[in-house]
Amino acid sequence: MDCKVRKLFARVIFVALSLSLLHFCFFLSWLLIGLKTVLPAMASGDDSPIFEDDESPPYSLEKMTDLVAVWEVALSDGVHKIEFEHGTTSGKRVVYVDGKEVIRKEWMFKLVGKETFCVGAAKTKATINIDAVGGFAYEYTLEINGKSLKKYMENRSKTTNTWVLHLDSEDFRVVLEKDTLDVWCNGKKMETAGEFVDDGTETHFNIGNHDCYIKAVSSGKRKEGIIHSLIVDNREIPETVE
């Protein structure tokens, strides 16, 4: 009987030594997460969840621990905040757009890769790239419509005009898309009416009770092209650089 016990014990030791470091790390991660969940409940003696509606708060301690990158992306319908969580032990990936969770993957064996999602009313394609930069360090980059964020914003500055103004105790952000001539105000596409005038065109719309129009005139210079100006209540609004 003692001989069988010794053989069984020897097999157990052999299997334990054969486990890879990666398996051990995953086991340890599961154990720590389990303890973090169970110990507070044991201490309080209460089996009920902390949040009665079974929903986590938008900014939890766990989220703040794993938050690795934050970007702000200016689109026609507004400036959107993108946040990314990456658990470098478990591989967890969580993406938030304007505080709303759009992607959650709790356990990922592969720690590098990419996550693709949509941003804004126009469902603009966004991709977060996760790349290893040596050791346990990672680099996170954001692409918008297949271009780096910097390149996208540079191109966007050439295809849009933006104005920020204050009317009736409220801030408004007006964006003109030059390629489509669509006008956006505070995230909504405006109803517009275009007309030809002696020196160019005017695109009319209303913000509340205020008459607005965007005037387009030729600069007379090939490199500058068409110049667009926003007029509100017969007053020109200076353009904003984003």
TrEMBL record:
Tell me which UniProt keywords the record has, alphabetically.
Answer: Apoptosis, Cytoplasm, Membrane, Transmembrane, Transmembrane helix
Q: Which residues cross the membrane?
A: 12-33
User: Which superkingdom?
Assistant: Eukaryota
Where it mainly occurs, coarsely classed, is: cytoplasm
Record-level GO cellular component terms: cytoplasm
Task: Please give the biological process terms from Gene Ontology that the record holds.
Answer: apoptotic process; negative regulation of extrinsic apoptotic signaling pathway via death domain receptors
One Pfam entry name: FAIM1
Compartments where found: Cytoplasm
Summarizing the function annotation, the protein's role is:
Plays a role as an inducible effector molecule that mediates Fas resistance produced by surface Ig engagement in B cells.
Regarding protein family, the annotation reads:
Belongs to the FAIM1 family.
Q: What is this protein called?
A: Fas apoptotic inhibitory molecule 1
